[in-house]
Write a structure and sequence with these properties.
Elements lengths: L4 H20 L7 H6 L6 H12 L3 H13 L5 H22 L6 H9 L1 H34 L3 H50 L1 H14 L4 H4 L4 H8 L7 H16 L2 H9 L3 H32 E3 H9 L9 E3 L5 H9 L2 H35 L4 H20 L7 H25 L6 H20 L6 H15 L4 H4 L1
Helix pairs in contact: 1-8, 1-17, 3-8, 3-13, 3-14, 3-17, 4-14, 5-12, 5-14, 6-7, 6-19, 7-8, 7-16, 7-17, 7-18, 7-19, 7-20, 8-9, 8-14, 8-17, 8-18, 9-11, 9-14, 12-19, 13-14, 13-17, 16-17, 17-18, 19-20, 19-21, 20-21
């Protein structure tokens, strides 16, 4: 891997740009309302920027490329789920959210089902968002490790510091305005990466043929467990490579996670009208699909030309050498950054590296803002919201660094799916019932549904079930709520 002055300059300039946006945004923050929801004055592109700024983060780029390296096109489910979630947000939830007269999702739940439901949901939802923040720190650390050959711990703490500085000054104005900058740079970067992959591989067919070549006709076949062309196709060209239940369940968890995440609701509340908020969500959906596809192509390209250090060690154990012309990565999480440094023109690659770090920074920062808002508004309830929110942001990022240090070998997108699942079981069902079916369910049973649904999800994660754990969690939550369904006499 060769890092030139162009790579470094592009990275520094991109980070300086986004940090400047975050710091200058402080001028727009006069009170807590400006910090949390832009004072309800944002236009379409700021709404879209706030959503995309958080939604398309390390999981959607570095994590998707990593998963594509392992499982091919089925890695696309994360960004497809994001797009479908934004569509559902625009069509079904924009108007009721904006007319709820609330500033957090769990405040809506509290108004209908009481303080205990709000508190429990707030803690669990914040935990789900915290897991996603960890994934962003892991993504940024993988990028910095690739660029500067520094230890994981050092790269992780640098990542956490950058995320903290970005959002702690300007809040949602930082996330929104910076997100607009990010949309422009990310679209250019993803398009450039996707085109370069297809040119180098001589089209999608050539890309798949290259994967077959390395996995079936080199010594890698001895350690990867794939023996036939059908095996390779089933893993790398199958949209349900990890099983229909697993991949469809992962997609569902992302869709519902989008609807259950404070950050995206804050973006909707920030819009100056219902139509502006709806257009912002739909633009987010349209942008996320091609970005995800480009990242999948990058991951598959890297599978065709690289092996991991674990695969190299497995070859050495059986007395085989690395195949000729094949590169080695320390971790599959380095697929995207190593593609940029090794296979893109240096100047363009420098811009892409900067954009990639921006993507991760804004994604992690937006999630941190959402989690801190939930904790401050629904749990802490201090007199000085703004000061406590900023302190909470610092605390969350510090804790994220500590926890991320013990998850360095984890698939980034697996953390993302788990995060979305936790947000869903803690928030989605009670929120939806409060918005669309008020007065029909007993608060006690809705409170139980938050705990039981989350317990079912966690149980499903640790036990080998024939279905994805998100189905188990949703079913548990719905069953509790149905037990608390009021009859017509009580309702009337």
């Amino acid at each position: 891997m060769s890092i030139s002055i162009f790579h470094i300059l592009g990275l520094i300039l991109a980070v300086a740009l986004i940090e400047t946006v975050g710091i200058l945004s402080v001028r727009k923050v006069k009170n807590a309302s400006d910090f949390h929801t832009s004072g309800g004055k944002a236009g379409t592109w700021v709404v879209a920027g706030a959503i995309i700024g958080t939604l398309v983060g390390g999981q959607s780029t570095v994590g998707t490329a990593q998963l594509a390296f392992i499982f091919g096109i089925s890695a696309w489910w994360f960004t497809l789920g994001m797009a479908l979630g934004c569509v559902a947000l625009a069509i079904g939830y924009v108007v009721p959210l904006r007319h709820s007269d609330s500033t957090t999702l769990l405040e809506i739940v509290r108004k209908e089902y009481g303080r205990k439901a709000e508190m429990t949901g707030s803690v669990l939802c914040s935990l789900g968002m915290f897991i996603s923040i960890i994934a962003q720190v892991l993504s940024a650390a993988a990028l910095l490790m690739t660029l500067f050959n520094i230890p994981f711990g050092v790269s992780a703490i640098i990542s956490a510091i950058i995320m903290t500085l970005y959002v702690v000054f300007g809040g949602l104005w930082s996330a929104g305005i910076g997100g607009v900058v990010k949309i422009i740079l990310l679209c250019i970067s993803a398009l450039a990466a996707g085109v370069i992959v297809l040119v180098l591989a001589k089209g999608y067919t050539g890309l798949v043929d290259s994967i077959k070549e390395i996995l079936l006709y080199t010594d890698i076949q001895l350690v990867d467990g794939l023996n036939t062309i059908s095996d390779v196709n089933a893993k790398y060209q199958n949209i349900f490579a990890r099983g229909i239940s697993k991949d469809a369940g992962s997609c569902l968890s992302v869709i519902l996670g989008v609807l259950s995440t404070q950050t995206y609701a804050q973006a909707i509340w920030s819009g100056k009208s219902d139509s502006v908020a709806r257009r912002g969500a739909m633009i987010s959906a349209l942008i996320s699909i091609p970005i995800g596809f480009a990242c999948v192509m990058v991951g598959m390209f890297m599978r065709a030309h690289y092996i991991t250090i674990d695969e190299l060690n497995a070859l050495n154990i059986i007395g085989k050498d690395i195949p000729e012309g094949i590169g080695v990565m320390t971790s599959s999480a380095q697929a995207f950054p190593m593609f940029v440094t090794n296979h893109m023109p240096k100047f363009i690659g420098g811009l892409v590296l900067g954009t990639l770090l921006i993507t991760i920074i804004i994604g992690g920062s937006g999630l941190t803002l959402g989690a801190s808002t939930i904790l401050v508004k629904d749990v802490f309830k201090p007199k000085n919201n703004l000061a406590v929110t900023r302190l909470t942001i610092v605390g969350i990022q510090l804790l994220a660094f500590v926890v991320a240090s013990s998850f360095s070998g984890q698939y980034i997108n697996d953390l993302g799916f788990l995060s979305m699942g936790l947000r869903t079981t803690a928030t989605f069902v009670p929120l939806t019932l409060a918005l669309f079916f008020p007065g029909r369910f007993k608060p006690k049973w809705v409170f139980f549904s938050i705990i039981f649904g989350t317990a079912c999800l966690v149980f499903g994660e640790f036990v080998s079930l024939p279905v994805d754990s998100i189905y188990v969690g949703l079913l548990g939550s719905l069953l509790c709520c149905l037990l608390g369904l009021k009859n017509d006499k009580i309702r009337n």
